[in-house]
Each structure stands twice: as C-alpha cells, then as structure tokens.
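Hi U.,

Before I forget, here's the chain from the pilot set. I'm dumping it here mostly so it's searchable later in email.
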Amino acid sequence: MDRPPAAAPDDPLANPTRARLFALLDELKRPASAHELAASLGLHRTGVRVHLERLELARLVERRRAPQPRGRPRDAWSISPAAEPGGERPDAYAELAGWLAGAIPAGAGRLREMETAGRSVGRRLAAGGDLALPLEHRIQAVLAALGFQPRVHREDAGAVRFELRNCPYRDAARANQPAICTLHRGLTQGLLDTLQPNARLRAFVPRDPERAGCLIDIEQPPAARP
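Structure:
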C-alpha cells in the first residue's frame, strides 16, 4: 500500500522504528518472524517484539502462531486486514502504476496478457519466507499488505472465501475496471501457483471499486485441507 501522510504525534507510526517495521512488512507482503524483521533492520529482537506488540494494539499488524519442525511455534507477524495507516483507507495507486507500466500489452484489449503479467507479480509476492502457515493465512497476509482489508470466510472443509472490504486501486479501476480486475485475478492465481499449486481459484467476483466487496473463492485439494 502507499505510505500514509506524515503521522500525528499520537499515531503509532510516528515512532521511526515502528514506521520502519510497518514499511518492511508492507514491502515483504508476507508473514515474518520478529527474528527476521530484527535482522533485516539491524535491531534487537526483544525491542522489535515490543514495537510489534504496540502496532498490534493499534490494529496495524497481527500475529499468528507458526509451527516449527523442531521446538516451540514462532509468532508470524503481518499487516492486519483492518490496518488503516494514518487513519485512512489503504491506497496502492502508486504501486499499481508501477505494475501497469510493465503489464499493459502493446495491443489494446489484450486482457490475457494483463492476467499473465498479474500472475507473474503474484508469484513474486508469494516467494520467500520460512514460516509454515496455512494457505489462507499466507494469502490473507498478502492481500492485507496490498490494502484490500480482506475478511476470511471458511465455506467448508476445503473451500475458503476472501471478502475484500477495500479497493486500494479504486482510482485506476474507475478508469479501466476490466484491465485492473483482470490483473488482480492473475495476481491471485500467481499466489496459488507458488503457495499451493494444486489449489483451484473457484471464483473471482469483482464489485464496484467504491463500495468494494469483491470475492475470491479458493478450493484446496483434499491432501492440503485443514
């Protein structure tokens, strides 16, 4: 998501370390441990955890427990689906503009190329990280970092629905919704390509970008179901 304007003194992001942590999670667009975040920023893990807990209280980040092959589970930190940095709905127009620069095909109306480009972006966003989290939590983390404010609904044992409560690309979607939504559909499929290749994008339902409410339905293969 785009960076919020200068934070007010009482804003949790007014603290430079917390602002750096939030920016790093936004850049990673995946869950990360306090150890990884501390190492990336050259900070002590204990201090980083204190700042993350402050951001958690402000509903800017959230944590989940990530099982480990050996030892105790670790906390996995990511952008909260309810995050409103600076008190505003998330916006990602500038980020989208960069993607579109490399995604718009030479010929007009070539939506297939848009979806292919979005798929490539999704694969890049899903790459990296060593935290063993369920598919729905990984996807939710990416969507939250992008500013969609996703809400998860488990449909049945193998299906999960993401309701997107904000459209961070609403300005671009007003100008060309078919292209923007096709790019986003490709991005979602790219996430699945990397995170769970056998999962199926069962439905992708765009809605009015001003009112949001787009739906993403994913069906997992039996072996990967919780």
